[in-house]
Amino acid sequence: MKKLKGLKRYRVGGKYYVYHRATNTPLPGHLPEDHPDFLDAYFAAQHGLANMQPKTIVAKNSVEDVARQYLNSHTFLGLSKSYQGVRRNDILRLLRDKDGAIARAPFRKVRSIHIKAQMRAMAPNPANERLKTWRALGAFAVDDLELIQSNPSVDVKKVKAPKTDGHTPWTTAQIQQFRNHWAIGTKQRLAFELCFWLGCRISDAVHLGRKDISDDGWLEYVQQKTKGQVAVPVNRALPRFAVASDLEHFRRAINAMNQPGETFLETELGEQRSAKAAPGWFSEAARAAGLPPGLTSHGLRKSRMILHAENGATVHQIAAWSGHESLKEVERYTRKADQKKILSVLDTGNFY
User: Fold this and answer.
1) Is 338's pLDDT higher than 80?
2) 171 near 178, Cβ under 8 Å?
3) Which residues on adjacent β-strands are paired with residue 15?
């Protein structure tokens, strides 16, 4: 039987989920797709799609009209795939606010006072994300649509958010605990070694495969978030600050996977793993290993940079490895480096 069209299929924690893509209707994933009960549910969802109410007519030059045009613009489509999801979701929340009153309002009547009022009702980080959304919509209305003369968000200031240390770095004991639980040969262990050795985001890890390893021993990729290029040594001599034993774990994890697919972390169905679902999938793996909440794949990225700093790497070397464009960002990430270890490293040259 041919695969049914229009379905989303993925597995989380050993459970298989299937959704009808257009209507987001859950289907009985525990049944084969040619099972009569599965087919009944599938065709019911298809019937529901055919009978969906027509979309409400959107008023020309309203906030919703501008937002819809923006979502189809080169400006929006030029964002990274992961950030497109963030921006799209915030726009949808904006349009639902006040029962759609903001969505129906003429964009020409939007003022900074309206944006500030909306932000005051939100926590600091979501409020600042909303400000980014308004700035993007305002710039689009000015530059692309020529609908208004000035962006109503330009004079709105960001909300001061409480400072945090960000993602929690993993300790040596926690790293060993994960490795003890997830053996070489499992996708969870492979994801761990990819994120830890490369110091990459898991949204990048899901795109990587043998195709990205060059003949001269570099694993090279373009970051999904920033579009910056990164090259990390995997089959060549290492800089003196790199931990060779971690590279050995990485190589063993890669060599244990003999799947023919293009990406290392492909699903059991042979499909590329979703960048959106991957962080949750990995966090579940950490919980299954008995690790405390709060340890994420991004924490491994931070751990790699801390290790490099403790082994005498300069901020420029760390940034080259991780793909950070801002040295200040690297310095912020490595504040937890053990200062005594840094000062105990011999023959490292200048640190800064």
Assistant:
1) no
2) no
3) 12
What pLDDT sits at residue 164?
65
**How far is residue 154's CA from residue 147's CA, in Å, rounded to a whole number?**
16
Comparing CA positions, the residue from 186, 184, 173 lying closest to residue 282 is: 186
- Which residues are bridge partners to 25 per DSSP? 20
**β-strand partners of 10:** 17
Question: Is residue 182 pLDDT above 60, yes or no?
Answer: yes
Q: Determine contact, residues 304/287, Cβ cutoff 8 Å.
A: no
Q: Domain 172-344 belongs to what topology?
A: hpI Integrase; Chain A (1.10.443)
Each domain of the chain, given as residue ranges in start order, spans: 7-51, 63-144, 172-344
How far apart, in whole angstroms, are the C-alpha atoms of residue 311 and residue 246? 14
Q: Is 9 helix (H, G, I), strand (E, B) or coil?
A: strand
Which residues, at least 6 apart from 150, have a Cβ–Cβ distance to it below 8 Å? Answer: 142
Spell 95-111 as b/e; 16+ CB within 10 A means b: bebeeeebbbbebeebe
Which residues are CB-contacts of 59 (< 8 A; sequence separation ≥ 6)? Answer: 65, 104, 106
CA angle (105 as vertex; 101, 108 as ends), nearest 5: 155
Cα separation of 71 and 75, whole Å?
A: 8
Please report, for residues 18, 48, 230, the alpha-carbon distance to residue 23 in angstroms, rounded to integers and kept in the order given. Answer: 12, 8, 38
> How would residue 14 be classed by pLDDT, with cut points 50, 70 and 90?
low
Can you tell me the mean pLDDT for 151-174? 87
Name the more confident of 201 and 270.
201
Give the pLDDT band (50/70/90) at residue 45: confident
Residue 351, pLDDT above cutoff 50: no
- Show Cβ contacts of residue 177 under 8 Å, excluding neighbours closer than 6 positions: 289, 290, 291
pLDDT digits (tens, 9 = 90+) for 296-324: 999 999 999 999 999 989 999 999 999 98
